[in-house]
Amino acid sequence: MTKDEEFLVPTDQYLKAGIHIGTKFRTKYMEKFIYKTRTDGLSVLNVQKIDERIRILANFLSQYAPEEILVVSRRENGWKAVKMLGKLTGIRVVAGRYPPGILTNPNLDIFIEAKVILVTDSWPDRNVVKDAQKIGIPVAALCDTNNQSNFIDLVVPCNNKGKKSLGLLFYILAREYMIKRKMIKKASDFKAKLEDFTEE
Does the predicted model carry a pTM greater than 0.85? Predict the structure, then answer.
């Protein structure tokens, strides 16, 4: 078995999407996911750890029905990807500004009950992270080298700023979630294309 076969997608697909390219800043928490620092000062994330964590994320989310999951992306580069995830899987998504109180105030028309939250970046999406913490539901977050991990239950290291990187991550996540929930039998039954998740 080659190294590539163990990965969710071929290594070069990860590299092409720049999923491993971090920022010039690194937090203490994210150090364990960093493979090296380039000469230009950018930190590079370990692709193997990224792949491992995406797998853990897919397994974790697949324990929940689509309507029990809420995915939030304040960052515009993630909008197309999270909307596509929602369209294919039925998972609820908020692309754009997270409406305050939708998790905590049952009197709101838009109130929803979720059992687990996934955010594309714990900093711009901090309001939903705080709400989830208040009501005691787990939070998974895509974290770059500069993210803090406070109140995050599952950290998925990746470049959470690039369109291609976020597109690839949500493409894999949609496919794996659908396989694990038995919506499709195998990877080849997944009809969406990577382009459906990424914006040119």
Answer: yes
